[in-house]
Amino acid sequence: MYAAVVLFFFMCLTATTHAGTHQPCHAPNMTGFMSVLSLKGEIKALGVFTYESMGKKLRFRSNDSYPTNTSISLDLLMFFEEGIFYKIDSKNQSCEKKSLQSTLEPLDIPDDATFLFSVHTGTPSIEGEGLKVKVWTGSMPDMKGHYSIAVTTGCLPVSTFYFTESTSFLFSTYDVELEIKDPDLLTVPSICLGLPVEETPEGTVNSFLNEFM
Q1: In whole angstroms, what is the distance from residue 105 CA to residue 14 CA?
Q2: Which of 117, 159, 174, 195 suits a disulfide with 33, CB 3.0-4.6 Å?
């Protein structure tokens, strides 16, 4: 499986048939499930997410009902546009407020992404047995890596690959609904209000991706 993923990404990086007329689309408001898998075979997290397109806000809460030996328990509230995020621990009533050095989002295509190609997963010849996706890619200078994101024709993210010098991750979404079911999830919890932004150690690149490393 993992060799196939690497091969797919290599195809994305080396494709030369993209057209210059394509412009990155942007994901709509969404609620759904997300999994994070390292290409070493480790399930890093399984959980639910809420995403607001206009404000570029993301809440991700891993589901402790499905623990694995390698999974991480996380509750993250990301404000990508503001460059701030919160690590929330409701059980212990604690919170950390940090700055983002990389605002790359796992659910949205960056404006400077390069379109590679459109492809059908499954088969387009049988109704309901295929899905057309558009593949975009780009670099992550702050993290010395590249990304590749596949979205539907309506710009729903299907999967995002992150490849860095030290590790690689696959983010996948499931059972996505085009609404924000609970807007309160995208507001700062009371336990986080009034906190100062923590100082970022030299050489650290805070990002959504880094929380799974």
Answers
A1: 23
A2: 174
Tokens of 130: 């295929």
Residue closest to 185 by CA, chosen among 52, 18, 91: 52
The SS3 call for residue 170 is strand
* Stated pTM of the model: 0.85
H helical segments located in the chain: 2-14
Which two structure tokens, joined as six digits, stand for 69?
Answer: 């030996």
Q: Residue 213 is which amino acid? A: M
Rounded distance, CA 120 to CA 81, Å? 33
Are 26 and 39 contacting, i.e. CB atoms less than 8 angstroms apart? no
For residue 98, what are the β-bridge partners?
Answer: 85
* Each residue's pLDDT tens digit, 68-99: 665 678 999 999 999 999 999 988 999 999 99
Which residue is it, tokens 């996380």?
Answer: 74
The least confident of 28-32, 49-53, 67-71 is: 67-71
| Nearest in space to 210 (alpha carbons), one of 52, 36, 61 | 36
